[in-house]
Amino acid sequence: GGAVSIVYAARHPERVSHLVLCGAFARGPFRRSPTAQQVEATEAMIKLVEFGWGQSNPAFLQMFTSQFFPQATLAQAHSFNEIQRHAASPRVAARLIRAFAELDASAELAQVRAPTLVFHSRGDNRVPFDEGRFVATSIAGARFEPLDSNSHVPLPGEPAFQRLLDDMASFVSPSRPEAAAFAELTRRERDVLDRIA
């Protein structure tokens, strides 16, 4: 979703007050000057998705889960496997992976005007750390925050998870003018809003 968010922020600056990206890329794997071996590996993954995604055997989905969250607990891995299985058919999942591999939003980076915070895990197996740095250095004034994690997005229980939440909360000011529009929220709803804002 990072590349899509970048394009949206660039094309609709009046609708984006702050941009927070985590594990984002602007250039898909086929647009990062890949080696022949990297292209072959991505094509092989697409084939695996086409043939294995819909099976009840979780081995195919677990391959992706292990890349996204290599240190996930058994419960976290199971949950992500299930999310993947229900999120798309094998055909649609393969088409999405190919589309993301061919995506290139790098031309839009210089057009982003919203204050931007870019997080990227040092050990991310899905999106190279250098791609996160590329995104941050290509957006004027963006702040780059490396995370000490091997997960694509840090999981609850990792120190990087709490750091991400805290940094995000301080980056997006809690004294937003639009907060008044949510005056009718319960205390619990406001807690949730404050956490994600």
Task: Please give a structural write-up.
- This protein has eight helices and three strands.
- The chain is mainly alpha-helical and about 200 residues long.
Distinctive features:
single chain, mainly alpha, 197 residues
Task: Please give the structural blueprint.
Blueprint: H1 2-11, E1 19-22, H2 36-52, H3 59-68, H4 74-87, H5 90-102, E2 116-121, H6 129-138, E3 143-147, H7 159-171, H8 187-196
Parallel strand pairs: 1-2, 2-3
Helix pairs in contact: 2-5, 3-4
Spatial order of strands in the largest sheet: 1-2-3
Distance between the termini: 17 Å
- The oligomeric status of these chains comes to single chain
What is the approximate shape?
globular
Strand-residue fraction? 5-15%
Structural class: mainly alpha
Rounded mean pLDDT is 89
Low-confidence stretches: none
Short description:
The protein has 197 residues and is mostly helical. Helices cover 49% and strands 8% of the residues.
